[in-house]
Amino acid sequence: MQTPILKMEHITKEFTGVKALKDANLDLYEGEVHALVGENGAGKSTLMKILTGIHQRSGGKIEFMGKELHLKNPKEAQDMGIIIVHQELNMMNHLSVAENIFIGREEKKAGFWLDDAAIKKQSQSLFQKLGISINPSETIGNLTVGKQQMVEIAKAISHNAKIIVFDEPTAALTESEINELFRMISELKKKGVAMIYISHRMDEIQRITDRVTVMRDGEYIGTVNTKDTTKDEIINMMVGRVIYEDPKTESTVKEDAEVVLKAEGITMYPTVKNASFSLRKGEILGFAGLMGAGRTELARAIFGADKKDKGTIYIHGKRVEISSPMDAVANGIGYLSEDRKRFGVAVDLSVAENSVLSSLKKFSHLGFVNSHAVHRISKEYCEKLKTKTPSVHQLVRNLSGGNQQKVVIAKWLIQNSDILIFDEPTRGIDVGAKSEIYTLMNELAQMGKSIIMISSELTEVLRMSDRIIVMCEGRITGELDIKDANQQEIMKLATKREATG
Amino acid sequence: MNDILENIKTKGMQKFIALGALILLYAAFSVFGNNFFTVDTLVSIFDASYYIGFLAIGVTFVIITGGIDLSIGTVMMCSAIVGGTLYNNAGLPLWLCLFIIILVGGIFGLANGIMVSRLKLPPFIATLGTMMVASGVGSIVSNVQSTTFPMRSSPDGWYKDIFRTADNFPTGIFVLIAFTVIAVILLNKTVIGRYTFAIGSNKEAARLSGVNVNKWETVVYMISGLFAGLAGIAYAATYTTILPGAGQGFELQAIAGVVVGGTSLSGGVGSVIGTFIGVFIMSVLKIGLPYVDLQPHYQTLITGIVVIGAVLLDIYRSKKEKSVKIKS
Which helix (H) or strand (E) holds A291? Predict the structure, then answer.
């Protein structure tokens, strides 16, 4: 084989005393798609930030096209053809497509006047080369996430990219957008571009990558050829232990279990259309569907976070009026947002303060908080849920994603919620903590809590749910008992668009 | 043609609403006010718009980057005081003093820019500090005395003609329009403008794209300072006497004009023409209210309501944009 275009050896990185990278290695060949995997906090992102000049390494050696590389800033990396497509797309939403692609290197007349006609033309020919149709004058903010990502890739290519790093590129894409992305990746591969692909999705890694490098705790674990390796082998390398989780094959809900929540004709224009379903005691009801199917919106409408246009909700058979989260909480509904940091926890408050955020009334008298009781109850729930925190006074900011999620669960349990809506419960949580959250959800269901679980990971839906509801474009397109459910069936329903639509 | 219509729909909506509001307002005062519809009143509306207009055009750049400049009001006064004092006490020629006024504004702008971009101070705090510093410097330089610029009758009275001739012709409106055009070109046709929008839209993305964000942010605050200097000249020409310690509150009037003109305080969106219209809405209100027998202090109240209305409109508009996006 030829010599690698990139060689990163024994890279270390320290952030004020914390070792983020201890000994990281990576080599990359021309025209190769190379997966970089590891649990959250394994150091993938840090390594890529060093490669792309955002951070500087503390030690080790980087060789790029046979020369040693010392990058001081992202601009230098770009000029050398090392580009990263960020997970959270870094676009200037108010600017046009062409302006975004050529930001920082505009076509100029006399060094000062912009020549926008030129960059529009160049963008156009760039898109033609890639076989995509996007209007260069369109404002970026008006494009779908998938289209925005294509613009970002086009931008990378316009830099004459030799290496492109994709950081979880498919996290927000629909199925057809993912296919389009993969088509572009194989196109680039033919042109000899080397790509590093960071993802948690094993099936994607198996589909498009040539080799996989695994990292754990800031260290290099190993590199394997994708086609000679199974999914389980890779996961074992990632976590260093065997994860054992049985998918559910049969519903554990009793035949005569009470219907605790019934939603009828919930409509919220334009995202939710006439959705009806019921939830039984002790049930885990999975909501599957593609990005934008309206699942989160439905959940928010039921929780009163957004105003619904139509529909009725019954709790324990009684019709209730829910027009704000306050009403929902009073009716025993708890919502665990997909975006924990924004909507779930107050990161600058302590574990104890977060735990009683919804139920502070219970722990206060005449407006004074009984901190003794707060301390006791939050400690009790930390123990019950096995939350890993040095004390209940620890700031939630300093907890890992999985433990933050547990604090949110504690909050709703203390509030005595018996209907819990989990929106993407394991997003951004590493594999180890994931199975703990799964166990916890099962225990909650056994305790008689009812759970609505929205998840974009089909394996998760199939593993956890007693019953699965599939949505597409705001409508409920099907309902499957777990024993009849499989990936193909769900995907069929998830893409069942309206014929007249 | 379709393209133009689309452009008006998406980008220029608030500008057109603002223009409509301005015309309606002027018409309403003309109908209901006593003697409002006269040349003299129009000239006083212009007079009230020059210095606020310069302040507002300059601060539009800062607001588009997502920042704010609270110092422009006192910087305007301070630079005028410095120029006036040099003229009266050091005997420098007037043209040089006017030039120095702009320069002083630019220096304060540079200081703001360095504090915000390099020292990472929040713009609100940095420019609040500069606001007080400029106010203090003005008082020190003038020794807490008022500074008087030459009268029209004196040999150096020519500078007054820049904004209004002896026979009451409002030359200043052409000066303001000229600088509006310059600002429009800066914002839409040059690198400065592109980076102004880029920083306001997503600063981190701009930085990661290799834009020298620190440099351009500094430039933007300098533009705001330079325009505050221009405003100082306009103020001196219109009102002749500058009181030390004055100037606070003008920045808010200017920012109100910017917001009414459709520039978003969250950054990334804005236009100089909108600001121009917004400033005139404020001036028409200010001059017009007494004509319908409302005392000047009602103006503050009504100004407040107009600003809140404009921001509500902005929020409503961006909400609508979002809902459109979901559908597509």
Answer: none
